[in-house]
Design brief:
Blueprint lengths: L12 E8 L9 E7 L1 H6 L14 H14 L13 H7 L7 H4 L1 H12 L13 H22 L3 H22 L1
Antiparallel strand pairs: 1-2
Helix pairs in contact: 2-3, 2-5, 6-7
Length: 176
């Protein structure tokens, strides 16, 4: 496959960007793929040349994001603790709870690159697998209910509401 950027060299860097994430395995998830050569990856400032011998360094990702913020002309600083984006990049630690909001855009991109998602999809300590499945089903139904109401499909919304009530009754029965 040729590089999508220069159309000359062989593509050796393959990037998959999550454009829209609905939920795991959803057909509504949208991805964008980019296939470029090593030289174009450098020009586009993409992380590349990653192998098992040289894993992608989290600090390089932090620096890459910090450069983007500096290029945009903004110097982020928390008003509560005074931490700057450069300090976060150097230390790798947040200074206070408000830093999550101040550096939100920066952290979202970083976490999405590290984990491939912004929501936790694994096990939750202290919750059984059946309870976790029920919670996930409730979340799916709530999203479906919201969509049905927006689309003014009130019969579907009523059906979803009834199913949500059943799940709530099951949850109440299991705690007794």
């Amino acid at each position: 496959m040729n590089c999508q950027h220069c159309q000359k060299s062989v593509a050796t860097v393959h990037v998959t960007e999550v454009v829209q994430f609905v939920r795991p395995q959803s057909p509504d998830n949208r991805l964008r793929e980019l296939h470029v050569c090593d030289q174009c990856a450098r020009k586009l400032n993409l992380p590349h040349a990653v192998s098992q011998a040289a894993p992608l360094d989290i600090w390089k990702l932090l620096q890459l994001n910090a450069k983007k913020v500096r290029i945009q002309g903004t110097t982020l600083r928390c008003k509560a603790c005074g931490m700057t984006l450069d300090e976060l990049r150097r230390n790798g630690k947040l200074g206070c709870a408000q830093d999550y909001e101040v550096f939100k855009d920066y952290l979202h991109e970083l976490l999405e690159r590290m984990h491939g998602a912004l929501e936790h999809v694994g096990r939750v300590p202290g919750i059984g697998e059946g309870e976790l499945e029920r919670i996930q089903r409730v979340q799916e139904l709530q999203a479906s209910l919201e969509l049905a109401v927006r689309q003014e499909d009130y019969e579907e919304a009523a059906s979803i509401r009834d199913e949500l009530k059943l799940l709530q009754v099951e949850a109440d029965d299991s705690t007794i």
